[in-house]
Design brief:
With 185 residues, the protein is α+β, with helices and mostly antiparallel strands. Helix content is 18%, strand content 42%. The chain is built from three helices and eight strands, in the order E-E-E-E-H-E-H-E-E-H-E. It has a four-stranded antiparallel sheet. The chain has a two-stranded antiparallel ribbon with strand order 1-2. The protein has a two-stranded antiparallel ribbon with strand order 3-4. Strand 6 and strand 7 form a beta hairpin. The longest helix is centred in the middle third of the chain and has 17 residues. 23% of the residues are buried.
């Protein structure tokens, strides 16, 4: 590219290069009593999320490592080279895995129980409804994910499901049109 932009450093959904990095740091450090400066890290945790400024979607194919953004080898090719797939599916989970199945946080709780933490960052999911079956909850979802084939889409859903998965339909969609990042981002 002539403008110096790395060709892979873009939103996987709209292809925009207007990305923003959110870094959250939590650490516990021993302090030198003579200088007041941290001298030894007892515990450190850093979490980083990359977000597209044009379409506002998280970018799970990019990770912040050693002070720079790099491609996540496990996700990059599937998310950037793949196409969107939409699945209608159910995931059956233990009722005690769901903190709340009513109220404003119910969708998020049910999605987490069904697809786990990576699923909430990598998939666009919508809980259509849920049913109780004794000590189990059946979560009915619409999920959009990116994959290079129908088999890969099914494998990704199967890998994320935190209980028995039933895919009732799986269809390929077209990729949204590319966004030009004019506007001074």
């Amino acid at each position: 590219m002539t403008d110096g932009t790395l060709p892979w450093l873009r939103c996987y959904r709209c292809w925009s290069t207007a990305l923003e990095l959110h870094v959250h740091y939590d650490g516990i450090h021993r302090v030198d009593p003579a200088t007041g400066t941290p001298v030894h890290a007892v515990e450190e945790h850093q979490e980083a999320i990359v977000q597209c400024l044009d379409c506002m979607h998280d970018q799970p194919h990019l990770v912040f490592r050693d002070g720079t953004l790099v491609a996540d080898d496990d996700r990059w090719e599937r998310l950037v080279m793949g196409t969107p797939w939409v699945a209608s599916c159910t995931v059956t989970v233990a009722a005690d895995e769901v903190e709340s199945c009513s109220g404003p946080e119910a969708g998020e709780e049910l999605t987490f129980a069904a697809l786990g933490d990576p699923g909430t960052q990598e998939f666009f999911s919508h809980v259509r409804f849920h049913t109780h079956d004794g000590d189990r909850i059946v979560v009915h979802l619409l999920v959009e994910l990116y994959a290079r084939s129908q088999d890969e889409a099914g494998d990704v859903l199967e890998g994320a499901a935190r209980g028995p998965l039933v895919i009732t339909s799986l269809a390929e969609e077209s990729r949204p049109p590319a966004v030009s990042s004019g506007g001074g981002h």
